[in-house]
């Protein structure tokens, strides 16, 4: 009997690996191959740009990734130094999820995201500095600008949440997001091929900012929950 074409598994194209991720892995390989130890200095930014044939912004994004993981530090006027050894096997935390079922993956990820982001919003509201607030507002303004121009603002939305994480002054929030970034980014890449996914949550990013500005942790938690409740509703509605 001839197999039904609809029953044949599809081989989907691989996602393009972004340049910053490639640089991150190249740096981890270099640290491992060169047997660098804590306290050793990494090559200068210009050296890395020339060796890897990428721009300054890509190098800096990879450096920020390692800083978020707490494995390197940049000393003003001195350079970038290794705080602890890394390898390609340790820079990403493998997550075991059934990626064939997007609805289930998003709901499972949302459970984790809800706990982390509510707490991050509350901590940011308590600890944010004037400088933190300026950065969060800058990311929010850009998110609103892009959203109004295009009707969607995935990368800018992510940048806003990252700024909130940084305002906690607890490096573990940033480290957790970096390690789970690939899974979390499913929320910012038009799930179910819908440009309007979670669009209704857009206004609550401004009210979340207002709560952090007012240093009101409970209000920050409430506004974060409003965002994530809409995300959950859209996952369930759009996956029917």
UniProtKB/TrEMBL annotation:
GO terms for molecular function: DNA binding; DNA-binding transcription factor activity. Pfam families: FCD (PF07729), GntR (PF00392). Keywords: DNA-binding, Transcription, Transcription regulation. InterPro entries: GntR_C (IPR011711), TF_FadR/GntR_C (IPR008920), Tscrpt_reg_HTH_GntR (IPR000524), WH-like_DNA-bd_sf (IPR036388), WH_DNA-bd_sf (IPR036390). Residues 17-85 form the HTH gntR-type domain. CDD domains: WHTH_GntR. SUPFAM superfamilies: GntR ligand-binding domain-like, Winged helix' DNA-binding domain. This is GntR family transcriptional regulator. It comes from Rhizobium azibense.
């Amino acid at each position: 009997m001839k197999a039904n074409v609809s029953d044949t598994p599809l081989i989907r194209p691989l996602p393009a690996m972004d340049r910053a991720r490639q640089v991150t892995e190249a740096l981890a390989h270099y640290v491992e191959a060169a047997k660098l130890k804590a306290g050793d200095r990494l090559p200068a930014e210009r050296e890395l740009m020339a060796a890897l044939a990428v721009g300054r912004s890509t190098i800096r994004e990879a450096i920020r990734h390692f800083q978020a993981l707490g494995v390197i530090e940049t000393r003003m006027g001195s350079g970038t130094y290794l705080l602890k050894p890394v390898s390609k096997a340790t820079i990403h935390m493998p997550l075991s999820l059934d990626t064939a079922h997007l609805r289930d993956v998003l709901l499972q990820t949302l459970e984790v995201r809800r706990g982390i982001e509510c707490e991050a919003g509350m901590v940011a509201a308590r600890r944010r500095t004037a400088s933190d607030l300026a950065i969060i507002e800058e990311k929010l303004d850009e998110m609103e600008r892009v959203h109004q121009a295009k009707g969607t603002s995935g990368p800018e939305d992510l940048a806003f949440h990252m700024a909130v994480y940084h305002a906690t002054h607890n490096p573990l929030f940033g480290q957790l997001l970096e390690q789970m970034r690939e899974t979390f980014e499913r929320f910012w890449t038009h799930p179910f091929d819908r440009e309007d996914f979670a669009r209704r949550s857009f206004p609550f990013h401004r009210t979340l900012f207002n709560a952090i500005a007012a240093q009101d942790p409970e209000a920050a938690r409430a506004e974060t929950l409003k965002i994530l409740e809409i995300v959950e509703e859209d996952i369930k509605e759009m996956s029917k």
